[in-house]
Amino acid sequence: MGTTSVVARMTIACAVAVSVIGIATPTGAVEPPKPRKSACTADPAAYACLRTDSRKEVAGEPITFRGSLSTQARKNLAQWTDGENTICLTRYKTAPEEDGSWPRQTLDEACTTLNTDGTFALVAYLGRQGKFFYGVEMGPCKGDAGLCGNADGGLLSALGNKKNRAVAVKTISP
After folding, report:
1. Which residue in 49, 63, 165, 174 is deepest, having the highest Cβ count within 10 Å?
2. pLDDT tens for each residue of 12-61
3. Which residues of the chain form beta strands (DSSP E)?
């Protein structure tokens, strides 16, 4: 394995680990995120950003999420997806589990390909009613076993973001 490959893997692992800080913390140890229309990672700054125009939507109606990835995030995504550059929307509850964890659900039906300028737009039909936080993660890992087995494909989560923000949308009944 070449030095470049090792450096790239370590970069992916470090950047991704930072994007999911706080996912498994003791109850009460982390201040809950502030629901907002937009959020960006704090460290590394603007590694990934996500926004929506609507904080409240009728369940089952389309809602658009837009975002951008930094140059480093784009490189990591290309390696993770073997050049397919697929990203998917993730959903989080607005409060941690009893054990303090913040599990995420990947919305496989809400995936898209990154534009060449590092931007993206996802249209999602959010059928589940309630208020949730949203983030994005890298699409299915198509890299080698070492990369796919030892790293996390998260890009922007509900925790650890700049100004403690999380993208939040409340879906209501029709």
Report:
1. 49
2. 444 444 344 344 444 445 688 999 999 999 989 999 999 999 899 999 99
3. 34-36, 38-40, 48-52, 56-58, 62-69, 86-92, 104-113, 119-125, 130-138, 154-156, 165-172
Q: How far apart, in whole angstroms, are the C-alpha atoms of residue 11 and residue 59? A: 38
By C-alpha distance, which of 135, 132, 128 is closest to 158?
Answer: 135
* Beta-carbon contacts of residue 50 (< 8 Å; ≥ 6 apart): 38, 39, 40, 65, 66, 67, 134, 135, 136, 156, 167
Peptide bond into 26 cis (omega under 30): no
Residue 139 has a CB neighbour count (10 Å cut-off) of 21
38 - beta bridge partners? Answer: 51
For tokens 């949308």, the residue is: 169
* In the chain, domain spans: 3-172
pTM of the complete model: 0.82
